[in-house]
Every structure is written in C-alpha cells, then in structure tokens.
Amino acid sequence: MGRSPCCEKMGLKRGPWTAEEDMTLVAHIEQHGHSNWRALPNQAGLLRCGKSCRLRWINYLRPDIKRGNFTSEEEGAIIQLHAMLGNRWSTIAARLPGRTDNEIKNVWHTHLKKRLQSSSKPSGQAAPKRKAKKPAMAAASTADGSASVPVSPEQPISSSATDYSMASSLENTDSFTSEEFQIEDSFWSETLAMTVDNSGSPMDAGVTLGAQDSASPSSSNDEVDFWVRLFMQAGEVQSLSHI
DNA sequence: AACCTCGACAACCGCAGTCGT
DNA sequence: TACGACTGCGGTTGTCGAGGT
Length: 243
Known about the structure:
The protein has nine helices and no strands.
C-alpha cells in the first residue's frame, strides 16, 4: 500500500553488531530509554535503523535476558504452549521469563519441531545423522518411538476451539519421555488448574514458567488466559466425546 | 589436512495492528 | 473517518562453527 521502507537504506549499516555498537546502544537506552526507536539511532549516533536497534536490544542486550541452553522444563513449556497457541512466539516468550520470541522461535525450529516430528514417526526413521553438539539438545528418542503429538506443529491456531485439538494435546502430555520433560504432570496440572481456578480474575491467572514476568503486558496474559480456558473447556468436551 | 554438511543463532524483511492527527 | 507513521510480530535468510567424510 505504498508503505515506505522501515528505514532508509542509504548509509545504514547492516549485519552483525559490533561490541562498540552494543555499548553505544545500551548506554543510550540506559540514559534516555527507548520511547522512539525510529529516532533512537540518530540520537545515539548509530548507523542502524530503528528496527535493527530494537531487535538487538530485545533479543540480545536487554539486561533481563537469560542466556544459555534451554532447560528441559523450558522446552516442555514451549512445546505445550505452542500446542495451545501456535506460532505466537511473543506470547509464548511472555510466559518464559528471560527468553525472547526470536530465541524461542529458533529453538522450536532447530530442536523441538524436529523432535516432535521424529517422535511421531515410526522408530528407526528419526535417528539424526549427526551427533548433537550439546548433550541437552540431543534428539529425543522415545522408548518405543511411537510417541506423537496429535496437533501438528505447523497447524496455526484457530479461532474456533472445535477445530484445534487442545484436548488431545493436553491429554497426551506424557507423549514425551519423563527423562526429558519431568515437569509435564505437575507443572501443567498446577498451572492449568490455576488458570481455571482464577477464572474470576483473569489478570492473575496464567501459564507462566517460573516467576511471573512483570514485563509481560496484562493484555497478553488476558489473551493467553482466554485461549487456555477456551481450550480447557473444549478439552473437556472432547474428553467426554471420547467416552 | 581439506572439504563438505549441517546445526545453531543472529539478523533482516514484510505484514499487520495500533495510535495520533 | 481516513490516512500516515510507528511498533511489534512472525517468517525467512545469512553466517559461522563444529563434526563428519
């Protein structure tokens, strides 16, 4: 619709950020905040577009970023949240304090999606050709190789609970081996139960791993809570229908 | 030792939603 | 109400390093 490009391409630097640029950006944000990303590069003296600055800050420079490998709890949470929410990475990230949407998205595409796909295939077909670099990231091989997640990882979230099998996905939380997702039973029963129990005060309810992320907007929580409750109700309906 | 392949992750791009005028 | 500017999000790509051949 004739939108102008997000930034002027002329003279703006691209590619990996240098340590000096990082320092400049951090120093500027600590002093002046980031109320206006578009104007920030000029004010800070950076030859980057505002979008690039924002991304760098959010994904890498923010002080509350948690670096390092994802724990099995976090991976399990991502899988479950993805089953509920689809590719709503920012919403999922809001439930994982210290993790960014980009990071979660990367982990999903590089590890978790393949893990789910491999676990849904017959045994013997999922063996990775290469040894995993990081032990924690070793491809999961379920005991019988028959574990599967009924909801396709690719399936986008639907506005209708009836065409999204939340019930199945929740009922099959033990699709993952206990060694990898120890939190499954306790974590999800607790968090989801809390969501339902707090249905009267949606602002307080939520599926958050660890401490409540104070930075996550309440509207986001409301949205997630809405879907959680909706799916829970749909799950109850489907559970009954299976009887 | 050199080359190849693949995994991991940072960064970019374009679209959609929101807000101000 | 319409329009433009800006921000945020999700998909995709590029780059680098490690492991395999």
